[in-house]
Automatic annotation (TrEMBL):
UniProt cross-references to InterPro entries, sorted A to Z: LD-transpeptidase, LD_TPept_cat_dom, Transpep_catalytic_dom
Record GO terms (molecular function): glycosyltransferase activity; peptidoglycan L,D-transpeptidase activity
The name this protein goes by in its record: Lipoprotein-anchoring transpeptidase ErfK/SrfK
UniProt domain L,D-TPase catalytic: residue ranges: 86-219
Family: Belongs to the YkuD family.
Pathway: Cell wall biogenesis; peptidoglycan biosynthesis
GO BP term, example: cell wall organization
Taxonomy, superkingdom: Bacteria
The organism of origin for this protein: Methylobacterium phyllostachyos
Length: 226
């Protein structure tokens, strides 16, 4: 009798825990580009930096890329995919972003992506671009966390970093971004709530290479179509 009662109590407790996890899981995508609350900070982020690159209104901190796995360092690679030159291809599984070139190559960058269950995939375009962009929470994010600041000005501590490419479908901002990060150790990881993050120096490089209107394909499991 006692064993049956104990088992029943365990099942009830697990049911409650699972319910809480489902609520948290449903809420997490709403914080698409907010990072710090979702991650464990490193002990000494400053150890990642080796200098700066002149930029306005802030200099871009340069990362010691020797700390990165070589596959996440910016490099030109061979490319034989079907996409037209000028297309951005994000491979969620490989944690890589490629900008297709006209000569059978692509510029390849390492990226950080959304955690399991929160990575968006699909086709979009660059609807607008921002330099040291401001960050604002969505209405849904504020409803979930009323203490969020309503505006965080662009700067070194801004979660969008030095540049942002805003993804649109038609005329609608879909609230997903390709942007810089002040957490270089997160490149190659699956930690964010959906946005694609790059080293600040890499997003600045990509920003100069792509115009508004650029086609963006975000793939997962080798596919970008749902």
């Amino acid at each position: 009798m006692m064993t049956r009662l104990t088992n029943a109590m365990r099942r009830m407790a697990w049911s409650r825990i699972r319910g809480v996890l489902l609520v948290l899981t449903a809420a997490a995508p709403m914080a698409a580009c907010q990072t710090r609350p979702m991650q464990v900070a490193q002990d000494d982020d400053s150890a990642w930096y080796i200098g700066t690159k002149a930029d306005k209104p802030f200099d871009i901190p340069l990362v010691d890329t020797e700390r990165l796995d070589p596959k996440y360092r910016r490099q030109q690679v061979s490319y034989n995919g079907p996409e037209q030159p000028g297309t951005i291809v994000v491979d969620i599984d490989k944690r890589q972003l490629l900008l297709v070139q006209a000569d059978g190559t692509a510029m390849q960058y390492g990226v950080g992506v959304g955690k399991a269950g929160f990575s968006w995939k699909g086709e979009a375009r660059v609807g607008r671009k921002g330099v040291w962009p401001d960050w604002s929470p969505t209405t849904t994010m504020v409803s979930l966390n009323p203490d969020l600041p309503r505006l965080r000005k662009g700067g070194l501590d801004n979660p969008l970093g030095a540049r942002a490419l805003y993804l649109y479908q038609g005329h609608r901002d879909i609230l997903f971004r390709i942007h810089g990060t002040n957490e270089p150790w997160s490149i190659g990881e699956q930690l964010s709530s959906g946005c694609v993050r790059m080293l600040n120096e890499d997003i600045a490089d990509l920003y100069e290479r792509v115009p508004v209107g650029t086609r963006v394909l975000v793939k997962r499991n080798g596919k970008y179509r749902v």
